[in-house]
């Protein structure tokens, strides 16, 4: 259904269909802004022309209903169609997608939006850096990015957690951009551990791009905690450690026998320090 479009998109019947040549330019165009993501700009272009994203893409004869599918890879034909319709250079269209990334950067760049800046989103913006797992504050206006889903209301998130998570995010960026894999491995180990405490399963790289703030902030904070207290982070990030968490903890370190022994020792000491009451509660 493209009834919402203002411009008729049927080519005149006399004109032969030339492969690669696209529909008429749209009545209105909008200029892309710095760091704007292709899908976000297409949404603004659609809104300027009184239609929605799917209608715009159908009008452009691009075979996808979601602009986000083009953010990582827009082929030459699609770029040409969009450029023609919006009356801009195809190179500008391509510049709105993600550039080539290292595998490490790619694993920490979300395919779908998971956080946004409330301030800029109100203006209809969707920016590229918001997709990075390490992005924490909006680079345009400085507002803290918020997750798109979440049980926690903003005012329920403690300042301390935000402070730690922001530091963890900075470390994650360094790790993602460092030459060797060591830093990132260390960061992901901390995330794996935090995930186990939150009983969140899956790949650690997905946990730090999770649309739920209670998962993402906790995992980022764990990266910062792991830096200052590599082994005792258990005690720092968790209020109490139960048997389930202990098992998860051991699993997080199972491939590193030396660390496993040290962590196991700490976990047992934590359990002892909490005294017999806890032990009774488990029976
Ligand atoms: Zn912003």
Task: Give a quick precis of the structure.
The chain is mainly α and 283 residues long. It is elongated. It is built from 14 helices and two strands, in the order αααααβαβαααααααα.
If you had to describe this structure to a student in words, what would you say it looks like?
It is a single chain. This protein is mainly alpha-helical and 283 residues long. 49% of the residues lie in helices and 1% in strands. The chain has 14 helices and 2 strands; from the N terminus they run αααααβαβαααααααα. The chain has helices spanning 38-48, 53-59, 76-86, 90-95, 103-107, 118-122, 159-177, 182-197, 204-207, 213-228, 233-237, 243-252, 257-273, 276-281; strands spanning 115-116, 146-147. A two-stranded antiparallel ribbon has the order 1-2. Helix 7 (159-177) runs antiparallel to helix 8 (182-197) and helix 8 runs antiparallel to helix 12. The radius of gyration is 24 Å and the shape is elongated. The model is unreliable at 1-18, 234-241 and 277-283 (pLDDT under 50). Bound molecules: zinc ion. Zinc ion is lined by residues 117, 119-120, 138, 140-141, 143.
């Amino acid at each position: 259904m493209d009834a919402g479009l203002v411009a008729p998109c049927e080519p005149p019947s006399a004109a032969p269909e030339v492969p690669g040549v696209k529909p008429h330019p749209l009545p209105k165009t909008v200029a892309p802004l710095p760091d704007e993501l292709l899908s976000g700009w297409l949404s603004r272009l659609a809104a300027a022309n009184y239609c929605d994203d799917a209608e715009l893409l159908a009008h452009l004869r691009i075979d996808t209903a979601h602009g986000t599918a083009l953010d990582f890879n827009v082929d030459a034909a699609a770029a040409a169609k969009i450029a023609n319709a919006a009356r801009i250079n195809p190179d500008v269209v391509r510049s709105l997608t993600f550039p080539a990334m290292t595998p490490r950067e790619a694993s920490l760049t979300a395919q779908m939006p998971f956080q946004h800046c409330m301030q800029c989103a109100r203006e209809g913006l969707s920016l590229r850096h918001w997709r990075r797992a390490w992005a924490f504050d909006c680079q345009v206006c400085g507002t803290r990015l918020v997750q798109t889903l979440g049980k926690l209301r903003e005012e329920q998130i403690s300042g301390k957690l935000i402070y730690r998570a922001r530091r963890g995010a900075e470390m994650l960026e360094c790790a993602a951009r460092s030459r060797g894999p060591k830093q990132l491995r260390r960061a992901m180990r901390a995330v794996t551990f935090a995930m186990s405490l939150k009983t969140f399963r899956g790949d650690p790289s997905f946990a730090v791009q999770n649309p739920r703030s209670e998962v993402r902030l906790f995992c980022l904070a764990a990266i910062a905690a792991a830096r200052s207290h590599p082994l005792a982070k258990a005690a720092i990030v968790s209020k109490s450690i139960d048997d389930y968490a202990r098992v998860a903890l051991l699993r997080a370190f199972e491939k590193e026998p030396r660390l496993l022994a040290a962590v196991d020792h700490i976990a047992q000491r934590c359990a002892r320090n909490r005294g017999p009451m806890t032990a009774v509660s488990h029976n």
